[in-house]
Amino acid sequence: MQNDSDIKKFLSELGLDNVLNIEQDLGNGYVKLRISEADRRQALQDIKSVEDIIVELLRNSRDAKAKNIFIATKKIEDKQRYIYFIDDGYGIPPKFHNLIFEARVTSKLENGAKDAYGFHGRGMALFSIKLNADDIKITFSEEELGTAFFIKIDLNKVSEKKDQSILPQVIKSNGNINLIGGVNNIAKILMEFSIQNPDVNIFFGTPSQIILSMRKEAKNSGIFDKLPKFNNWESFTDYLNTDKKIKINLFPCLTENYLILNQIVKKFFNMEISERTIQRIIYEEFKPVEPVNICSLVHLHLLEDKVKDTDLKNMYKTQEDFAENKKSENINDKNFKNNQNKNIILYDEQKLALRFKDAEISDIINDINEKIKKTGSKYLVEPDGNISFKKDNNTIIINIELKEV
């Protein structure tokens, strides 16, 4: 009897060496790997944090040949994190929308490979996310039309870096661009991924910023005005059923009616955006986000080789200096001019209150306390000594209890 290695050699000569790695052929290029093959492809990084989830979704989108990735995120009272992840890649046939969350199901039989984050393609990433998240589902995906995920995370079960607003520094060393410092938060993950995959545009912001950015990108590319605009839901859905060439990121571009746009973001992205904000999106009353790339940080940190703290003369003084120098540095920043004043801090997660030390807040409270005593004397009221404060994101909440004199 031939041993296993003989069989593998024989199948390899026939170009069928992957047969032994498959437990089940699911069709459309999807397979379920055997346990031994999935173990061989064991990832170096399991899902332990929100940032891990972002990494795995990014890798899936890259492998699906996405050119644009839109990531919206929303934090609920420091207890939950919502992630809305949309790309314009190959898409997933509807019959696989549930299967892909099962263990060892993958479309990467031939091209499973290692990257900077470990081995990818063992069919365990989405399965692991599903095990750890409170909810993960595909809100839309079809072949060639891209994919939209919604993920709900309990931050007591799956942690994330506490300060999501810290950005890393950009360092030029030996002609290469690197990131240093900061924390491995979502912003840094996106920046690293962008550097490693410069052909992919990544947009990161709040739900309303991302919807506006989808529309703005379509306008910048010239496709927005070529798309039809619908004022009722039936006409919109009829169009989607007949035209199979519209990518998911273009759906918000198919109307100028705020009621229809509101239905689109709810049905296809699972986003809850107020009607007033939907109107503001249509009228562009706030700014969209720009793609995350090296230029997002250039105006914040750009250090030359071997810069010393005591000698900053070699630092680029202006962005114009960098623009001139970059011509010979082969830095991939095709959107430099469009990103000169952009960064990737979410406006609702800056945590400005944390900049105040407790002692500084206590001094402020003492001043307020004295003023209450002075003004309250004519009302026979004074502080009773129970004073507390809480720092919450961009707010300092001070609670001073009163008593009668």
Describe what this molecule looks like in 3D.
The chain is of the alpha+beta class. Among the domains are: 4-159, Histidine kinase-like ATPase, C-terminal domain (Heat Shock Protein 90, 2-Layer Sandwich); 209-283, no CATH class; 353-404. The protein is 31% helix and 22% strand. The chain has a 5-stranded mixed β-sheet with strand order 8-9-4-3-12, with helices on both faces. Strands 1-2-5 form a 3-stranded antiparallel β-sheet. Strands 6-7 form a two-stranded antiparallel sheet. Strand 8 (135-142) and strand 9 (146-154) form a beta hairpin. The protein is globular. 34% of the residues are buried.
How are the elements arranged and paired?
Blueprint: H1 4-13, E1 22-27, E2 30-33, H2 35-40, H3 50-63, E3 68-76, E4 80-87, E5 105-106, E6 113-115, E7 118-120, H4 125-132, E8 135-142, E9 146-154, E10 169-173, E11 176-180, H5 186-196, E12 201-205, H6 207-221, H7 233-242, H8 258-269, H9 275-282, H10 295-298, H11 319-325, H12 358-376, E13 381-392, E14 395-404
Parallel strand pairs: 3-12
Antiparallel strand pairs: 1-2, 2-5, 3-4, 4-9, 6-7, 8-9, 10-11, 13-14
Helix pairs in contact: 3-5, 6-9, 8-9
